Amino acid sequence: MSEKKEPSLLAGFKAFLMRGNVVDLAVAVVIGAAFTNIVNAVVKGLINPLVGAIGTQNLDSYSSCLSDSCSGDQGIQLLWGSVLGATLSFVITAAVVYFLMVLPMAKYLARVEARRKAKEGTHEVIEVTELEVLKEIRDALVAQRGSGHSER
C-alpha cells in the first residue's frame, strides 16, 4: 500500500503565504496604514479647525464630568470628544474608501461582466447559425443522395 505523504509544516505554511488572498490582504493592510495617516491629517487639519470655529480645535478636550469634581486626574470624566474624533475619522475613511475604491471597482466589474455576457450571447448566436448551416448542408446532401438513387 502506498502512503500519502503529508506536506511538512513549513511547506504548508509556505503554501498558505503564497495564496493570493494572503498577499492581497497584506497589501490592503499596508495601504490602509498609509491611508490612515491621510485621514488623520484631514481630520486634524480641516475638521478640527472647523469645529474650533465653534469651540476648541482639539476634539479630545471635549469631555463631561460625572463626579462632583473633575480637576486633573480626579473624578470620572467621559471623553466624548475623542470618541467623536475617532467616529469622524472612521466615517471619512469609510466614505473615501467607498467612493474612491469600492464604487469604481464595482462599476468596472459590472462592465466586464456585461462584456462577457454579450460575448457569450454572440458566441451562442454564431454557434446556432453554424448549426443551422450544417443542417442545411446535411439536408442538401441527403436530398442529392436521394435524388441520385432514384435516377439509377
Describe it for me?
The structure is a single chain. The protein is mainly alpha-helical and 152 residues long. It has three helices and two strands; from the N terminus they run H-H-E-E-H. Strands 1-2 form a two-stranded antiparallel ribbon. Helix 2 crosses helix 3 (80-151). The model has no long low-confidence stretch (mean pLDDT 78).
Structural class: mainly alpha
Fraction in beta strands: under 5%
Spatially, the strands of the biggest sheet line up as: 1-2
Number of H/I helices: 3
Q: Main beta sheet: strand number and arrangement?
A: 2 strands, antiparallel
Q: What's the N-to-C terminus distance?
A: 69 Å
Tally the beta strands.
Answer: 2
Query: What general form does the structure show?
Result: elongated
- What does the oligomeric state look like here? single chain
Helix fraction bin: over 70%
